[in-house]
Known about the structure:
The complex is a heterodimer.
Chain A: E1 6-13, H1 25-28, H2 33-48, E2 60-64, H3 70-83, H4 90-94, H5 100-108, E3 115-118, H6 124-137, E4 143-150, H7 154-162, E5 178-185, E6 190-191, H8 206-219, H9 221-234, H10 243-246, H11 252-257, H12 261-271, H13 277-282, H14 284-298, E7 300-305, E8 313-318, H15 319-329, E9 338-341, H16 348-361, E10 365-367, H17 376-379, E11 384-388, H18 390-398, E12 408-411, H19 418-426, E13 431-438, E14 442-447, E15 455-456, E16 460-465, E17 468-474, E18 480-482, E19 485-489, E20 495-500, E21 505-507, E22 510-512, H20 514-522, E23 527-534, E24 543-549, H21 557-570, E25 579-582
Parallel strand pairs in A: 2-3, 2-4, 9-10, 9-11, 11-12, 12-13, 24-25
Antiparallel strand pairs in A: 1-5, 1-6, 4-5, 7-8, 13-14, 14-15, 16-17, 17-18, 19-20, 21-22, 23-24
Helix pairs in contact in A: 2-5, 15-16
Chain B: E1 3-12, E2 15-16, H1 18-25, H2 54-57, H3 66-82, H4 86-89, E3 94-99, H5 109-116, H6 124-131, H7 134-142, E4 148-151, H8 157-170, E5 176-183, H9 187-195, E6 219-226, H10 228-231, E7 240-249, H11 262-272, E8 282-286, H12 293-306, E9 312-313, H13 316-319, H14 326-340, E10 342-343, E11 365-366, E12 372-379, E13 383-391
Parallel strand pairs in B: 3-4, 3-5, 8-9, 8-12
Antiparallel strand pairs in B: 1-2, 1-6, 1-7, 5-6, 7-13, 10-11, 12-13
Helix pairs in contact in B: 8-14
Amino acid sequence: MNSKIYVNACSLVKNPSGLEAYFEPKNLRRMDFFSRLALKAAAQCLSEAKIDLKEEKNIALIISTGYGPVARTCDFMDSIINDGDECASPLAFSSSVHNAALTSISILLNIKGPCLTVSNLETSFESAHTAAKTWLNCGFADKVLLGAVDEEHRVAASVLESNPEVFKDFTDAQTGFGAAFFLLSRNGERELTPPPAAKTPLNPSASAFALAQKYTDILNLEDMERIASCYIKTELARSGHDIMGVFADGKASGLLKNTDPALKTKILKGLSRLFSETEIELREEDAAQSCLNLFKKNKFINFFTSGSTGAVKNCVHSSAEVTEEASGLLPLFGGVKRVVCTVPSSHSYGFIFGLQVPKLMGVPVVQKPPLATLDWSGILEDGDLLVAFPMFLKQLLSVGIKFPPGVRVLTSTAPCPDEVIDGIYKSGAHRLTEIYGASEGGAIGYRTASAQPFTLLPYWKAEIAGGKLLSISRRDTAMTIEMPDIIEVAADGRFRPSGRKDNAVQVAGINVFPQKVERVIKTHPAVKDAAVRLMRPDEGERLKTFIVLKEGYTQSERIIKNLRDFMKQNLTVHETPRKITFGETLPVTDFGKKKDW
Amino acid sequence: MKTVISAAGCVCALGSGMEEIKNNIYNSASAPRALAGRLESVYVKDYPVYAAPERALAQKKEDESYGFLFLRLAVDEALKNAGLSAADLQNARVGVIAGTTVDASFNCFDFYKEFKQNAVTSYSPLLRYFNTPLSFAVQKYYGFSGPQMTITTACASGTDAVGIAGQWIEQDLCDVVIACGTDEINMIPYTGFIRLMIAGKKPCAPFSLLRAGINLGEGAAALVLESDSFFKKRNKKPLGYLRGYGTCADAYHATSPDPQGRGLKTAFNMALKNLQINKEDIAFINAHGTGTQDNDAAEAKVFNELFSGVRVMASKSHTGHTLGAAGAVEAALTLMALNEGVIPPSANFLAEDPALNLVPVLKSTPTNGKKIALSNSLAFGGCNSVIVLEGGR
């Protein structure tokens, strides 16, 4: 039996709160901690796999548990001791059987396939894995939902505290609890490595929890890529490693497959930390110098972008290309005496405008975090070039910034709304330059007023067809890039982007995909249909969603809370719509095309 | 699927060993009784159980549970009947799959009472609980080397053990698999089933009018499944074959079966898939037949829909409900009946229930040369498991 099995989705739960996001409270009323843990992990795992929780599923269900619902067994024994045989609790007994969790899961998640509960203490998960592989190999089921669940053994925990020498011969005397679920099949990208037995019967599902931790880290690719890009900016930039080989396949998953063990440990450690934007900025002094050193040594720099597919993509710029770009931008910034940069140097925008251009201009650079609450009126001086981005500029306007005379403002990384540009001028900025660019190619065009089209920067030559800009090539170096957006070109050669080719939108500088968010929201048990789009400028800068509820569900505080909890658990911060509108049908035009609301 | 079952061993209320069991089942010689001494319960006199024979109970070692006692007696007999010694299995890949409920549960009631009173006299019961998962204990006791698994899908555990054992052989995971099940009468399930009003005061009467619930039983059975290549080394006739296995969840209720029998029907269809047999080829079905209103009604519905006219045997009327052991015990009894060519009578039947349109065999009935039988189990929580067995002799 050598065929491989793959993890399609995975979840790890230590806290069963939030089940109300998935199920009606009446179905949870009498459920104990053990079954709640398992149920939540199962629901999360299926949700991650985009499986409708309510529809009937022919999935095999295998539960491994070292002890079963041991607390309920103790409760039942307590009821005999305290109340006598004739008043012993029948509910406690019925929920004390080992396959209680399997029962709850199969009923509430409508799983009507082969089922099994395995319990042999610390080898339970190892055995259950063998059973799962057996069933997949013989075609019993196309998918197996394999779960491991255990609660802390209260008697053992008590004895450990009062008489630890009782367990002196045990390899490990740590107790544990939780639920880890894996959706397995014979196809996928993440092969399930056979799990070892847990070290101790006092924490019989420990190996399952460890495995889930590993796969949860790896499988949640979007979060991982976001964290990876932050981590890479700050850590690898100063590692000195040749990171080209690491990212050879261009995907973040390759990051973990192709690296040597030491670097892999370092990357995983970094991935486990969530970098806030503030942390990145505070590290920027170091990272900026590291980027420069690396660039000088290797004669190239590698930028990482969330890209058009959502997968981390590496964009290599040779030193010649960087020099060509920085030199070509110089004429835009005559009279600049100092650069105040709020963008990390490991980002292509920050590298060019925060390091290379100032170097060519021979002016100093000051790194500042993009916090609107700083005293910018006191920080900025005549002759400064503030290197910023649209969200930060909007925040500056909201705190009523007044620019000192002679301050120039630069913005890029995302389209800057016209009203922001106008607002910056009204706040006293000498000039605002918006750069249109892409990590793949660097700066492409610029404009200095709202509603204006962009002017192609002089170091590019354009390929135009049918009034659309198809690709651009550098004049001096070999770089050619296809445009990531749909670009319309006017007769005077200036251009306007009119939307992403990949249907991504930007939320706080991060590419998100409204269609993907729609798909996730539609997996909620109460949702019949949903639409997601970016808010209009007057509404905000996040996503919003229009939801049509299924029959039997009505708009209520409870439903709204359920939906918000569900979105919080299944979407990233940037993907989570801030505004929910309900209606009986999705808004469409007379021709049936989705429209704004 | 056609996996060799070379031998079986069994201990239950009918006797200790297959020969004694065979003699007693055709004479309906077992009966439930009050189990004083081992159960300190107010219900002992009113709710009888099918206890294992005294001479089996007398062989219990001090440091083992009754569940393990029954299991080693059954495994000893099975290995002996299979003609296998420890030496034969030393270099073989031997798997152990054991079904149980009590042996995997923290049912150390006497220890727990002391613990609650801060008056523990010995931590041995606690350590025994943590040190010996059942299937691992069997491996260690016999010195087997191979995968092991303890199944706790309640009353379907024994049937699942046999079915998955067949899959392990088919997938070349093992040369031999000991598929077994064991359970002992224990204060916790005894009290629990009474409090759930599932246990009855009278001898259980599967499919009968006025049936009043289960009687708990105890015992164990072990079946030896072997790969063709391993079995062929010995010049023996197989006891029988495992021909199919199916299992499916009802997703209906925590303690009652789906009255429409949807999960059970699916399990039957899975087990019979790819087998070119008609219901006329089936000698009998060894029903789960617990003697409760709901269970028997759900089963009768399915039997009438899928297997109308096929004879039904209800062996729990002889053994009681042996919980995690039931599927394995019933598999052993099914093979015995196929090889004898005679279906044993179902005991304690009072009168036909018109709502069921089903009467189990009430006297010893020839199989008329038919070699195939089905054995099904319905578990707490709605797990339904079925195996298809073929007699070998």
